[in-house]
Specification:
Oligomer: single chain
Order of helices and strands: HEEHEHEHEHHEHEHEHEHEHEHEEE
Radius of gyration: 23 Å
Number of strands: 14
Length: 376
């Protein structure tokens, strides 16, 4: 197995930083970055900037021009070898005169899945992969989850007081977090394919669940509402023709309520059964509809249902320096929970920052789709 040098790691970290620039713009594609290096010096960088646009390798190689002759290409994902929305990247790499390709990880997409590396080797290029693979898989965990299980990546978001309350006993929650925290939430929404909430939260707050200002994506609003209680004069129903609203209902939803919402432009997603919405089945449907990232904003029963189903992949939490007291049910997660602290989920990657006094904590939960594979 080829030796991985610190120089290789350094250039790959730069490629990963480039890849991150595509966040929110490239889905359902993965974020990919590329760096061209010749004789130990940086020649060019590139990243996949938007869905349907040129891939990172092509951008970097075009910027490098003739300087790519005899150079090394560092890329965060195996170059594609098939015709999709763009020509195969392997063809561009071979034609450029690159002599060595170092990749962070193999692409599990079935039409690539090692074929890109094989094509490059067959053309006489040196190929190595597995450099900074953990970081690459962490970066593209949403893409990997959809490929692995066909479901979108779920981020749970909530704001709470220092003593763990998401609203007062009356239900009032405006505002727990400060303006700066709320602006971060809107930026987060603008990178999502869907924003999901329960009907209880909607009836209490009458939210729009939109990103303001608009981000790179326009997320669909998804409401768990077994009996189709969403009011036709709610902000969601009144804006359904402008920004899509999907209401997930059970077989208990009255036909007249379903018809009224459909008349407003709301799309109904019927689920089997007459009980709570089954979270795994719902995520299967959202995956079939092409969603890669879903932000779940509550309330406690909905977040608890996702947690009980093992379908919380990441969290975004905003903790205000306020104390409320009381013993009511407005807490971030309800549901069944665990019986032993050892069974509680723990973040394996997390970041903490201060936002004008609020504490922001975000991170991922370890899942199989971003664990290391065997490099070669």
């Amino acid at each position: 197995m080829p030796i991985v040098t610190e120089e290789d790691r350094r250039w790959m970290r730069l490629a990963l930083a480039e890849a991150g620039r595509g966040l929110g713009w490239v889905e359902p594609n993965p974020m990919v970055g590329a760096v061209v290096v010749r004789d130990g010096k940086l020649v060019a960088v590139g990243h996949h900037a938007r869905y349907g646009g040129p891939h990172a390798e092509v951008v970097a190689l075009q910027a490098a021009g003739e300087a790519a002759q005899g150079a090394t290409l560092y890329v965060t994902l195996e170059p594609c070898c098939h015709v999709g929305k763009t020509p195969p990247c392997t063809d561009a790499v071979i034609a450029s005169g690159i002599t060595r390709v170092v990749a962070a990880m193999r692409d599990p997409f079935p039409r690539v899945a090692g074929g890109g590396f094989a094509r490059l080797r067959d053309a006489g290029l040196k190929v190595q992969w597995g450099v900074e693979e953990t970081e690459a898989r962490f970066l593209n965990a949403p893409y990997l989850k959809r490929l692995t299980v066909g479901r979108p990546f779920v981020t749970a978001k909530w704001a709470m007081t220092l003593d763990g309350k998401t609203a007062c006993q009356s239900g009032d929650s405006k505002w727990i977090s400060n303006p700066r925290s709320r602006s971060v939430v809107h930026a987060l929404r603008g990178r999502m394919d869907g924003i999901l909430a329960g009907i209880g939260t909607v009836l209490l707050d009458d939210p729009e669940l939109t990103a303001r200002p608009n981000g790179p994506r326009s997320p669909t609003r998804i409401i768990l509402d077994s009996t189709a209680r969403l009011p036709i004069d709610s902000k969601l129903a009144l804006t359904a023709l402008r920004v899509p609203v999907w209401v997930v209902v059970s077989q208990m939803a009255p036909p007249d309520r379903v018809h009224s919402l459909q008349q407003m432009g709301v799309e109904l997603i019927p689920m089997q059964g007459d009980g709570p919405i089954p979270i795994p089945d719902l995520l299967d449907e959202l995956g079939r509809r092409g969603l890669t990232n879903v932000l779940v904003e509550g309330g406690g029963r909905v977040l608890g249902a996702f947690l009980d189903a093992g379908e919380v992949d990441a969290v975004e939490v905003f903790i205000a320096p306020t104390l409320e007291g009381g013993s009511h049910h407005f807490t971030p997660f309800r549901g069944l929970g665990v019986t032993r602290m050892a069974e509680a989920l723990r973040l394996t990657r997390h970041r903490v920052s201060l936002l004008d006094g609020d504490v922001s904590l975000s991170g991922q939960i370890a899942r199989p789709w971003w664990q290391l594979t065997d490099s070669a």
